[in-house]
Amino acid sequence: MQRAISLVATFVVAAVAAFLGMISYAACANDGVAFFTQVWWTLSLFVGSTPDQEVWSGIGDCPSDPSLAHQLARILALGVTYAGLVGVLATIWWHQLGRLAARLSRTRILVLGLDANSVALLPSLASGLRPGTRLIVMDRTEDPEVSSAARAVGATILHADGSEHSLMEDMLVRRLARGRKLRAVDVYLLSDDTIHNLQVVQSIHDIVGGREIPGTEVPRLVVRIDDPWSAEAWRRAHIGEDTPWLSDALSCYETTARMILGHEALRELRRLIIVGASPMGLALLSAAAQQARERRMLNHADVGVPEVITLVGPDADQLAQDFTLAQARFSVTADMRTLKAESLEEVLATGSHRTTGVILTDPPGGGSFPVGPRLAAAHPELRVLGWADGVRGVSRQPIMNQYYPFNPGLVDADYAPFALQPENLDVVPPEDTWIRIASLMHEEYVQSLDSSGDRPSHASWMKLPPFYRLSNVRQLKEILKGMHALGRTWKSPTESGPWPTELWWENEIEWLSEAEHASWLAFYSAHGWRAVPETDDERRRHKDMVPWEQLGVESQRYTRTLVTRSLALLRSLGYQPAVQVRRYRRSGTVSAIQRKQPWTWRTEDGQVMEAATGDWLVTGADGREWSVASQVFADCYRPLTPGRYERIGIVEARPALPNDVATSFESAHHQSVAGQWLVRGAAGETWLVGADDFATHYSPVLSI
């Protein structure tokens, strides 16, 4: 708006200057001066040039001295020219100054792709800035609303959209004498163009790779993917990936669904009716199921959860199927009672309207009267939330009876105006998935304490100091990343078989516990904590600031319990790390002879194996030798020529865990080393295969 006013004012002043200039030269027209010559003289005023000797000579009808109109026109014209020049130089200088300020910051939070829907997130990002961190908004559109909101929170604005590789590299990493370190602690890609966001993600991964992470930070990469199904799939696919980031997806449908279900108008309802089958409907069902899981985790299962959800509309069956499929795809139980009906009037004919809420999930139709207001007018006691134009987020106030309009967005409609007021700093916009899970895990931890005590780490999440909040997020990231490193997957476990049946193994818990303690120690050390015999939170001293091997028995047991509890809580929230068991086809040729006496041999990692009488001595193409039990040899090898055999058969395999144990016919205790694969044959026997050998002789069986 300010830019538009400035442009209009400049145009008006220029028009007045041109008008006065033409008037001042009008008398010369009677002296045979052409009209276009007068226009040229007038335009010359804007560059400070006037044909004084030619015009003001007193010849003919031209006046001998410049008129007042001419002098005023000259002043206004030069003013317009200099103002424009200053504006251009200021714009260039402002852009360069912004880039310089961005480069001088120690760490940054990068925000790309802001629009009217996401700009209200800026206040919360700005309010949580740590010392030395600068909020940087990259915006090529120069949207006045985005620029105004960014300047209001003190953000630096760069005229870019993430496509400039050199600029992105400069913003993401810092060049040091010993290498390059990650300097962007958080990156938010908030464009409504999902494809563009994912392209920027790939560019970021290419730039960052495995850069060193500052010990004080837990870098996060948040990508806007509005489709709720795609958002959850992308989120799980990037859990624990080999990058510095804790990645998450942000969906306007998911965010709005959580805002709707947490709306005060829908509290204490016994029945919820969802009308329509848009992505908003699927997001609401998924959010309701997740809300129920969260409440069960916190022992609040009977609070605020509707007894039944009714789906209404011709596509109600399809929506129910999509919801069940979406939950099952991630091995999540949709433990929620749903009904289906063709007609809303049919459903409203039964039950109390005082305890019933209706959510209209389809966007408003062109030209038709909105259903929401009509429904609220016909049933004054009914709580109605309907998709409407001209709204951002979910309205907190009804516009008639109990009708509340909403429009899918990333922040509440009423959030932005009061977010920066000091009395409202505890009010935050909807959290992304991992921040929310970290807060839930912390609240469960606080509930498990015998008494809250006076330690800062025992406060509720809203009162928890930023240091401890960040440590909770760090702990969550370490567990997610650790399970991924152990060969687990957080994605759809469709390729995971029934082998094995345990949720997780003792050696996994031990490995994760050591990794968690190492991460905790590095994080606390980076924030100035030191080791002392007795813990003192105020002085940043802790008795456990020692390596795992020197940690006391009770402290080690506490860490193991913490890791086990965290995995159990993640599982209760629908995040179960599945074992990546897949089927593989064996290939390659070998030489083999059957021996008539027992013998021993050593594996590549030096472990002794025992072969029985009648077992086969097999020699690979690389000269490596091993034994194969006589009872399974025929199922594993097919004769080609005398003494030459071809590997055959399909086996199951997964990456071996640290200290995994293979139970084969040759040994009951063959322990794994890093990089090996654990393979299971048709007879149930297991053996270990090196990474290179596995890549050469085992190929995945593709299911159709």
General description of the model:
The protein is of the alpha/beta class. It folds into five domains: 87 residues; 146 residues, Rossmann fold; 155 residues, Rossmann fold (3-Layer(aba) Sandwich); 144 residues, Orthogonal Bundle (Globin-like); 119 residues, no CATH class. Helices cover 39% and strands 19% of the residues. The strands form nine sheets. A seven-stranded mixed beta sheet has the order 11-10-9-12-13-15-14. It has a six-stranded parallel beta sheet with strand order 3-2-1-6-7-8, sandwiched between helices. Helix 10 crosses helix 11 and helix 18 crosses helix 19. About 4% of the residues have low confidence.
Describe the SSE topology:
Elements: H1 2-25, H2 35-44, H3 52-55, H4 68-104, E1 107-112, H5 122-127, E2 133-138, H6 144-152, E3 156-158, H7 165-172, E4 173-176, E5 179-182, E6 184-189, H8 194-208, E7 220-224, H9 228-237, E8 246-250, H10 252-261, E9 271-275, H11 279-297, E10 308-312, H12 316-329, E11 338-341, H13 344-348, E12 356-360, H14 371-378, E13 383-387, E14 393-394, E15 403-407, H15 415-418, H16 433-448, H17 466-485, E16 488-489, H18 506-526, E17 530-531, E18 541-542, H19 553-572, E19 578-579, E20 582-586, E21 589-594, E22 599-602, E23 608-611, E24 616-619, E25 625-628, H20 630-636, E26 637-641, E27 644-647, E28 650-655, E29 661-662, E30 670-671, E31 677-680, E32 686-689, H21 691-697, E33 698-700
Parallel strand pairs: 1-2, 1-6, 2-3, 6-7, 7-8, 9-10, 9-12, 10-11, 12-13, 13-15, 17-18
Antiparallel strand pairs: 4-5, 14-15, 16-19, 20-28, 20-33, 21-24, 21-27, 22-23, 24-25, 26-27, 28-31, 29-30, 31-32
